[in-house]
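Hi R.,

Here's the chain you asked about this morning:
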Amino acid sequence: MKKLFLILSSVLLIHPSITLSQSLTFDQAVQSYRTQVQKDPKNLEMHQKMIDYAAKTNQIKVPLNIYQTAYEKQPKNPIVIYVLAYAYLANNQENKAFPLFQQCVTTNSSIWQAHLQLARYFKNHDKFSQAIVHYEKARDLHPKSIAYHFEMGQVYRRLGALDAAENAFLQAIDYDKFSAQAYYELGQVYALQKMADRAIEQYRKGKKLDPDNPVVRYQLAHIFIDNDDGRNAILALRSGMSADTQYSQVANRLKNVSSLQASSILKQILKAKPNNAYLQYFAGKLCNKIGEKEQAVFHLKKAKLLNPTDANVRFLLGQLYEEQAQTQMAITEFEESVALGNVQLELLLELAKTYHRQNNPEEFMKIATQILAINEDQPEIHYQLSQYYDHQFQQKRREGSIEESEDLSKKAVEHADRAVKLAPDVAKYNLKLGEQYDRQGMLKAIRFYEKAIQLDPQNAEPYYRRGLFMSNFTFGSAKVLLYEPELVMEDLTHAVQLDPNSAGAHHALGVVYDRMGNVQQAMLEFNKVAELDPADSRPHLYLGEKYANNGQFQLAISSFAKVIKMDPSNVEALKDYAFLCLSHDQDRLWQDANKALESAIKIRPNDAEILMNYAYTLYLNNEFQRAVEYYQRSLEIRPNWEKTLYNLALVYERTGQKGLALQTYEKAIEIAPNSRQGIKALEKIKKLKGKN
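And here is the predicted structure, written out as tokens:
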């Protein structure tokens, strides 16, 4: 303890009573602190008051420097850690204070003030679940703290847990019956619960303690008008104006008036005295309620100028812009509202809906994460997240990122499952979950397809998805089909009957016809899909493969080109297109093949076939050194591939490196003597040796 005293006695802290004296010099404050710290070096309240005094007198750097020195000498002392963190906080260095408060509770978990500061940090950053953990720890260590109860009430109110908020504010009042703000906060909770009489009762109690505060009465007026309680809203507004020196002379003009009359009077008052953000905001809300949208926008814009940091003003302004089809202006206001700390679920859901509609997945994901952190019970958000992860899964699968794609698939299933559990009677949620289980080959997919059919029997999609699943589901080592083909075709034909223009139904029919070996009928169905949904690349991918198998290479090349145009990241299409260009129209299309393979390498850089074919296009372009590099990269991935070895040998031969050419041809023969490349390599060796 002596060592702690020696360090802290040199720090500029002050006894609480000294802060009341404005005439006291800073040196006197230091001297008083030295006396006090000798008696009680662990008194954090004394330290805090001195730090506050130093900050108030612009001397914060003095104690801050000495606390930093103390911390260097005793980095594990919880008292030193706490006071240094508090000094950083007083100096507006939250980024330095926060980790120290965390270190403090790790070093000594019984310092309730550190838990309180951490709770406030998390509360201010809208991390309410973490804030609650530390508030409860502070409560357990110091049950009579009014700060805990009061601030917990604010957190619960932000979360919409009004019963818990009410209880917290009541306890705060029990510990301090002279806290006007606690009465006001409790009154606002009652107002939110639409208990106007109880709200007014609490405000009257607060008013006795704090008679000249117009702001809290304006806040109550806003809550009442949000609850469509125009009468009490105008009463609260008039009460606030009567306490506001700028408007006290005109407050009685709002006595015994209707909402329509109040709107007209308020416009006149604000025309003469416009510089009150609360009144402008209230006028905007009132005009909106009575259908005067343009006037509402006018007042909200005024409120925004007067108080640019009011997130709620921006939210309402954004809603009005959206009603007026001014989408981009609405989004700007919504985003600003969120940036200013507005975490109202209604706002976040509105923004998520907008991002989803705009196909902006990155911003949607950010907002969706915020929404679920506040309230996990949002089935539509879970459904949209399932769609997002499903899309990402398919993308990663095409790129060959198997492990990553599996993680995405799990997330897609989890969110679809959550959506169904939250809203079991929504057809599209059941359909999505069925689709996810279908992709995993799980029989329970049928159950969710059937539920979707039951909920929405006129929708073709669950029928054709169920039919397609049944056509593919097998059991046992012999891979025996579980469902009869008649059941499959019944679902698929019914889907087409329900919606003859359903591209999905025709696609499913095409897949089933192909599995049955009826390629001609399958191609007819896929051509139908291409006609119905020009943006769907899948039918062209199938048709390209079939045209290639039938020797119709130009049609195949054309089909794969269409796939690439629609889906530039489809690696299989890029590979097949390049291969056909090089195999069947090399002189005319090798440069197109080169571009396709360049794209494919960016997506799948470790595909031996892509690297080999790309190297061949470099060879055709006389870029021999680069061709060798890419052939060698291909061989690093697939060392014993005779095709790559043969092509590499061609480059060596072309560049006069006959020794390397012979060696590489021989290796190709050694690996696959009877292959096409092995036979050709033998001929090459004979010619090269003959030349020698």
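One quick note: DSSP finds 38 helices and two strands in the chain.

Cheers,
M.
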